[in-house]
């Protein structure tokens, strides 16, 4: 009887989280997969089963391939740089320098600001002619106006910069917390042994930070698919989809073009991609991580 | 005890009947409206709605600010799919086919009863009705409508040795004058461009000005056929591209809509094409003397119309439909429409509005407001088809590709036509 009752307690404790997970994660995911095999309902015409037609359309959709490639470059551009920067900033504000509170606040500020508001500020930075960047360019170097957002070759890079600026401070917080939990005796021991600072960083600190790096890198990967707010404000995916990302394209398909069946198909692709990436990261990093 | 009991029942049933009666007379309407040009529009809508409700007891109108045009149509369609549509909404005129296709709106013809109603339906500018009617029925009533016009900086014109009161009237003159207006600094960098035709987000709208001037339309009135690969469309696009690349009178690349008025105020461009919705903004913020004129012509003068219409939603009770219809009739009457136009700069939808005392006083004080009206004579329907958002997205992508030089004009337009054909084939 005791065992049985404990079993009930267990489920009771789990149930709040389970209910939310099922309502907002598992159930929508399953219905999305189901919807991807149906046509889009229009007016009084209900959705009908069309098998793999949506997936065939997906393969032939050159915009899909373009946004997927964009997303690849966006991920490649944002993930390593924002993690690297986060680590550098964390090491910087963890050292005993003057004004470290001020720099902590400065580094963390972008995270607190809503991305929509921030995107409007960046829009001003990038504005050709009288934007901040152009004022520097023409004032200091006498260079001509540059239209970063209006050129398909530069627009994605401009979006990547905004994302890095937004994310690095957030990741820094995790690294900072991890750094502060590193026992000072390790540093003292390293000093006694005559190890250089760089050796200490490479052989002691970085391995100890690996669990944080795994956590941060999974978040960075998810964010590289999730962060699209600034695209709404700054480019709407243009010019000619040069700055459109997968999630933004899903939004357009579902709520602008009202192709809900096809949008479900795109979402399935996003789900699969994210699952593969998350699982891959666990396996890749697992061997290199020292959990205390 | 018995009589008292009967009395009680009587009172109770009377109270019940009165309660039912009052719910039967009070009609609740939900009304979504978008704001595209700033705060004054929202206040004016709210004030007009309150005025109507005060004068018509028994009607409650809940005016809901629903965001941008895009947000509003998304909200209205989502609410309809969820079974709780608004009864009334202002939505882009070009979304008419989408709303019909989703079977959420109803034609006004079903609510027209008296000769007065018929006369009212005839009282709008035909240019605005083109986007409001299809298949012989009227689905939208013009309200929040605009058209693009040419704004020019008179000081810059004088400085360049041009007559400050004469804007370019043709494509060629735009190039000639533009070349004189371009100003460069000692490093050879351009500090003032001749003209600015914004192309971010929805380049098709202003581009439609060019195609109309080149005497070609982009889509048929049934909304199931586009003519993107017409040689005259290609010619118009080539002209737009050449303004930057060949004649160098316009900044290269995609030009941002939002920054355009600011660039004009800052003297970064001597002329700009933008909506009449900016009239009040320019009037208040331009630090120099400016002019407002018709868009220059080529084979003819021409411009698209734009903006929003009133739609009545099909899933409403008969009382609600009647009340919504009555409200639309009231708010588009000259007295109300004049208030609206003066507060926002939107073009008054019918000739009678321009004859009101308020409007006469307004235009006497601010003549540029008349330009929009005069241009309506040359205006055509804004590009609108079934699956409108998808078709215009395809077209916008093609325009962006040509403007940024990623594709040739012919290649981009041929591809767009092919994609539009694929999307529209089910509607033919």
Summarize the structure in short:
With 292 residues, chain A is mainly α.
- Strand element count of chain A: 0
Q: N-to-C terminal Cα separation of chain B, in Å?
A: 76 Å
- DSSP summary: helix tally of chain B: 19
CATH architecture of chain A: Orthogonal Bundle
CATH architectural grouping of the largest domain in chain B: 3-Layer(aba) Sandwich
Q: Helix amount of chain B, in percent?
A: 40-55%
CATH hierarchy class name of chain A: Mainly Alpha
Q: Mind explaining what this structure looks like?
A:
The complex is a heterodimer of chains A (292) and B (428). Chain A is an all-alpha fold. Chain A has a single domain, classed as Orthogonal Bundle (MetI-like fold), CATH 1.10.3720. Helices cover 75% and strands 0% of the residues of chain A. Chain A has 12 helices and no strands. Chain A has helices at 2-35, 53-60, 62-94, 100-112, 115-126, 132-141, 155-180, 184-193, 197-226, 229-234, 246-256, 260-286. In chain A, helix 4 (100-112) crosses helix 7. The radius of gyration of chain A is 24 Å and the shape is flat. In chain A, 31% of the residues are buried. The mean pLDDT of chain A is 89. Chain B is α/β, with parallel strands linked by helices and 428 residues long. In chain B, the strands form 4 sheets. Chain B has a 5-stranded mixed β-sheet with strand order 2-1-3-13-6. In chain B, strands 8-9-10-7-11 form a 5-stranded mixed β-sheet. Chain B has 2 domains: 26-145 and 306-367, Periplasmic binding protein-like II (D-Maltodextrin-Binding Protein, domain 2, 3-Layer(aba) Sandwich); 148-305 and 381-427, Periplasmic binding protein-like II (D-Maltodextrin-Binding Protein, domain 2, 3-Layer(aba) Sandwich). The longest helix of chain B is centred in the first third of the chain and has 24 residues, at 2-25. In chain B, 47% of the residues lie in helices and 15% in strands. In chain B, helix 9 crosses helix 10. Chain B has 19 helices and 14 strands. Chain A binds chain B through residues 42-44, 63, 123, 127-130, 138, 142-145, 147, 149-152, 235-236, 238-241, 252, 255-259, and chain B through 70, 74, 77-78, 98, 101-104, 185, 187-190, 199-201, 251-256, 258-259, 262-263, 266, 268, 387, 389-390, 393, 396-398, 400-401, 403-404, 406.
